Records
---
Amino acid sequence: MWDYSDKVKDHFLNPRNAGEIPDADGIGDTGNLRCGDALKLYIKVEEVNGEERISDVKFQTFGCASAIAAASALTEIVKGMTLDEAKQVTNRDIVEYLGGLPAPKIHCSVMGAEALQLAIADYRGETLEVPGAGDIVCKCFEVTEQQIRDSVADNNLTTVEQVTNYTKAGGACTECIPDIQRIIGEVLAEKAAATSDETPGNERDAKIRRLLAEQIGPALGAHGGGLQLVAIEGDKVVVAMQGACAMCANVHGTVRDFVQKTLREEVDESISVEVGG
């Protein structure tokens, strides 16, 4: 049984702005009925004091309670916004508005944010590019490599479980999990390299970041776990454990015998690793 907030329950039982706008100025259609979730978002746009504002918005969805609540919440968030303001709305805004969503239901908020971007693009006569379309990683839910990359990068994901929560990839036959692990490792390595470029001269810290992203994180991810770097404070490295590692009774043993041991062997024997964040 999912632990839903009162606000999620309210938006599910009493959805706002459900329905269709026959003469909509923009329509965003996302999801896939074959995958169990689909959302169509309709917007009307009016010019008010020289600004284009969303004067009306409605939705039709096929999905679970979270999908209905997320779509309902999205319509309440964006109604009255300028288009430029609405373009900045993310799935995190939807989740925060609802007082949280169960982790396995985060993808419902992602679907809402995608539908909004598509509706705005439709109104403006733009075609949103779908990078990597056709490069399907998860065949069960038709999730592309670029979608996974974007989710990992934008939301600081470090585990397969988190990717599944955001995209549904890996949530059925699990055949794509090795590819998801590879993508996570590559994206985290790219982010670590970018961070080291921003702080030139600190090769030691850069090496720590690369090892956590390219070697240690993916190794933990292979067992459903993960970690995120919180801080490097001299010889002290602070990490937040995620996924299965966060719930493991031997988490401190893992940190000591694997994370810390690896960093000491590969970087500096004076390094200590602590769990924080």
---
Amino acid sequence: MEVFTAIILGIVQGITEFLPISSTGHLILVQEVLGVSDIYGLSFDAILHLATALAVGIYFRKDFLKMFYAFLYRITGRPVEKKDEQLMWLLIIGTIPAAVLGFFLEGYMDTIFRSPVLVAWTLVLGALVFLFAEWIGKRYEFQEEVPTKVRALWIGFFQALALIPGMSRSGMTMSGGLMLGLTREAAARFGFMLAFPIILGSGGKKLLDLFNAGAFDTNIAPILWGAIAAFVSGLLTVHYLLKFVKNHSLTVFAVYRIVLAVVVLIWLV
């Protein structure tokens, strides 16, 4: 794999993992455009996931450290900050659906649903979910900053929809949060933190499987540059998207997804 190609794919992964436009869907489409489907290795895929997970971990490091200390204080009998412990449990509960469904369905989704045509249609479907979530949010003017445990579980099911290429993890969690009473910014923050263990686990599992099978790509330079590109672009995307959603809706992303789907379908005809 060429370094330039790796950097392009890394930037695409970093940006689209957190913008509500689907990282898997865009990678499939970019690979088709660049003609690099055969050289986009599983080891590279795993490293890109770990790089974007690192970006989330770094950006929300204070929150994750507070939750870690809350866990330690609880098991050692020391006083615990309630809101930190609450957030820890909400993230654990919200992670369960995607973790369980991903364990059983990820391999199936990675093969059956990697068609550009199917990605185009799921881009449209995701856009409709965004528009419906925005309509619900505006109709009821929700102002909740933290979900309940039941709502966290439901947001976790929305996250599981991202197993389908083209749906978007961040888009589904933000939409779920909006429908279930959160402000747009709170839904985005919770969705990003909820993504951390799933992205980390997915990338780590792929990497471990490759090492166990002796199939890890030893062409380190492109992998390293791709990972750096994914990390930097992911970190910047998280930062600026959180600022964007304070005053803007998801409608612009819905329109983009529909336009992209139309372009893809025309291109493939």
---
Amino acid sequence: MAERKLLFDGPANVPVSLVLAHGAGAPMDSPFMAHVARGLGARGLRVARFEFPYMAAFRADGRKRPPDRAPVLLESWRAVVAELERPGLAIGGKSLGGRMASLIAAEDGARALVCLGYPFHPPGRPEKLRTAHLEHLATRCLIVQGERDPLGARGEVDGYRLSPAVRIAWCPDGDHSLVPRQSSGRTAAQNWDLAVEVVAEFRSGSAREEPAA
């Protein structure tokens, strides 16, 4: 197996505070992932990014593949958490990456969870919810969601039964990547900056609750 590669942002003299995984169709250095990780790094958080095996293979040979099966994705998450060996580590990611992190948090626990564009249901299948584990989640969780996300728009999500540990921050007129329509008067950068702001505030609050190392 190829050596796992991690991308780091933020001060090198502090422990990793947040690990992020990518979405189904874009790598860990996509514009969205880079914007969020670098923005959080500029706010003093140490952020690590990694790729699931199917995306790492695509980077190596340029051949597109579907996402790995859930057991492989979950094992990738567990391996990264074990590699970093940081008590109080927060986990999360974009879409698929955040969903897999939420399953890890529900099964194995985590200090905090950050989901950027959570896929509450598959495209065009609002009846097939992916929320059962979120109803009883004990881990503090922040979901940053676009108001018109086709995988969970505000009008839908407001009616879901979710754990009190789950907080949702809405990006105005955002789609699944938090990008608003031009007619909204907002830009993608504004919504991405909003995501960085709320994640930094959330993660700082989690850090205050953590015991001293």
